[in-house]
Amino acid sequence: MLEPAAVASRRACMVSSEKIATELSRAFLGFRLTRVVLAFRVLHGGQLPPWLGSAWRGMLGHGLKSAVCTTGLDDCRPCPLIDDCPYPVLFEARVPLNAPMLGSNTKAPGPYTLLASPGGRVASDDELTLRLTLFGEHGRDAALLARVFALGADSGLGERRLGLTLQRLAEVDLDGGERELGLAQLHQAPPSLAPLAALPPCPPSLAIHLLTPLRLRVRNRYVGPDCLCFGDFLSHLLRRCSLLLQFYQQTPVELPFRELVDLAHKLQFSHTELRWEDMARHSSRQERVVPMGGLVGTMYLEDERLQALWPLLWLGQWTQLGKGVSMGLGEYRLEAA
Fold it and tell me: What is the pTM of this model?
């Protein structure tokens, strides 16, 4: 039987957790995102890189600039139209004028994420899918980016320019359900979604499944399988979601950030099953192969204080986390353990 002091301490902890969870839910309740999936038919079989995130992002960069640039400048910085052009904000995550920022931040997180089906050897008539998630006000750009990908597919994907054609477009709900849109509806923006509008109860124990490599940089080093702690995971997620809300919905985030981070560092994974998965991409700008490996596997948590941070963990399933989210990295899913 617990001593009275221990009972009182536990009750105070539960009250504090409920208070923090309420503050997090209130802060991020209006967080909105838009999701679409594009399905492409392979016209002629061939070999693609095993990981296609970088190839799709490259297609987006070239296609978007061709579609919207009217000056032809290689460098956007001296362009007189830079504040009115969608390319710098969408692709380079340029900070808009007078945008609210956290601390000394000088660059916004990208307003979208991509998640592609695997590459490798493909045959004629195979299907490749690309899921696009846009944050806040940039949900209106879903139609523009879908058109860019449709046109880019005609020129081919990857270094070998494998020919594709867009055959299906659908809006995607929070559970992954799809509602097909006609290709003629590319000019229409799908409805936005609010992940915290129907927040389920926090389970007593939790499994966090890293589905695509997580590249988390802590103290100037990428975290390895034996070094990832829950505090670092949560603090990076808090920063990312706060910046997305501030930059793309112009909504100030007023939270006890220090208290939240301190609490997160008090929680520890009960155990982890993580490994490092090597990946790489070729950078035309840097003219070299760039490592893009990260952590995959599962982390387990069992702590009653988890309830306090549950709304943020739930939201992060749709924002992704870490470096390379614009190429499909950092996706995770939660499951009651």
Answer: 0.90
